[in-house]
Write a structure and sequence with these properties.
Layout lengths: L2 E2 L3 H20 L5 E7 L3 H18 L2 E7 L5 H13 L5 E4 L5 H5 L17 H9 L7 H12 L8 E5 L6 H10 L3 E5 L6 H7 L2 E4 L17 E4 L3 E3 L2 E3 L4 H4 L5 E2 L6 H23 L1
Parallel strand pairs: 1-11, 2-3, 2-4, 5-6, 5-7, 7-8, 8-11
Antiparallel strand pairs: 9-10
The chain binds NADP nicotinamide-adenine-dinucleotide phosphate.
The site of NADP nicotinamide-adenine-dinucleotide phosphate has 26 residues, from helix 10.
């Protein structure tokens, strides 16, 4: 059986670093503070905010405040509120629950977020800096993959890496992060021809598809490193994009779902928030 790349020890290592930083801030009278912004009702996003972020953040000493808007909030009102949050130096980072209302999504209102408080790396400024390889906030899930690879000392330099999925929050930024680390990256998507041929060729295969058990035994090869980003709920159970049971004996290394990338992602968000605190301190 392949080596299971558990997310827990990676998360624990990051958590230790996060707690140490929080203690230092505490001695200076600073409590890191995240503002979660929500528009209308959004049960799925709310569950994410409550379960992973708020619970974990409260446990480690990060304050979480909320700003809720009605579904029919206008773009102008929303922009004004984001500007106020930008000026408020007690708010260090802002997390916008997506999707927003239909209208605000259409207007891409989340892009009006201050890049200095954009702890999810979703603004054009942060994405642009990521593209050119400058220091910036990295989107949390792609960065979680990098943290996992680093923890297990898996270098991607010069390797054939195949990323299945090209979303702007996961597949694309991750591909750039891997390219910036000198991987030879192939990005696949729903229009890719001969997908199986490409995934089988990879030394490192990343699945960010959003389809339960999409990657089966015929799509992987012996010795391969398989990173499963997928989080799909099937009959009330969380399953990945990779058919773990089917491929685990064939590949060299594999992340489980749950217990793989997901648990690292919240820690990356906390690390980003602490970077935002540093930026805030430098400004004031
Ligand atoms: P998404 O926006 O739906 O993107 C899915 C990508 O997969 C698209 O690029 C799509 O291609 C591609 N795709 C779909 N069907 C395909 C097929 N048959 N063959 C090849 N490519 C195909 O999803 P996402 O937001 O990137 O999320 C991906 C997965 O990661 C989901 O399971 C999500 O729940 C999970 N996720 C996990 C975390 C975490 O912390 N672990 C965080 C975020 C997301 P096209 O572009 O051509 O449509």
């Amino acid at each position: 059986m392949g080596v299971i790349l558990e997310g827990k020890p990676v998360a624990e290592k990051l958590e230790k670093e996060i707690k140490e930083k929080i203690e230092i801030y505490k001695t200076k009278g600073i409590i890191p503070n995240l503002c979660i912004v929500k528009v209308g009702e959004n049960e799925e996003a709310e569950a994410y905010a409550k379960e992973s972020t708020t619970r974990f953040f409260s446990r480690i000493g990060i304050n979480v405040e909320r700003k809720n808007f009605a579904e029919n909030v206008s773009l102008l009102e929303f922009q004004k509120a984001l500007k106020e949050l930008e000026k408020n130096n007690k708010v260090h980072g802002i997390l916008i629950l997506r999707p927003l209302s239909e209208e605000l999504e259409r207007q891409k209102a989340f892009r009006f977020l201050s890049p200095d408080k954009d702890v999810e790396g979703i603004t054009y400024e942060n994405l642009g800096k990521l593209f050119v390889g400058e220091k910036c906030f990295h989107p949390c899930t792609p960065q979680a993959v990098i943290e996992l690879l680093d923890f297990y000392k898996i270098s991607v330099e010069g390797k054939d890496v195949v990323v299945v999925g090209r979303s702007i929050s996961v597949g694309k930024p991750l591909s750039i992060l891997l390219l910036n680390r000198n991987a030879t990256v192939t990005i696949c998507h729903s229009k890719t021809k001969n997908l199986e041929e490409l995934t089988r060729r990879a030394e490192v295969l990343v699945a960010a598809v959003g389809r339960p058990h999409f990657i089966g035994k015929d799509m992987v090869k012996e010795g391969q490193v398989v990173i499963d980003i997928g989080t799909n709920v099937v009959e009330g159970k969380l399953v990945g994009d990779v058919n773990f049971e089917e491929v685990k004996d064939k590949v060299g290394y594999i992340t489980p779902v749950p217990g793989g990338i997901g648990i690292i992602t919240t820690r990356v968000l906390a690390m980003n928030l602490l970077k935002a605190v540093e930026k805030n301190e430098a400004r004031n």
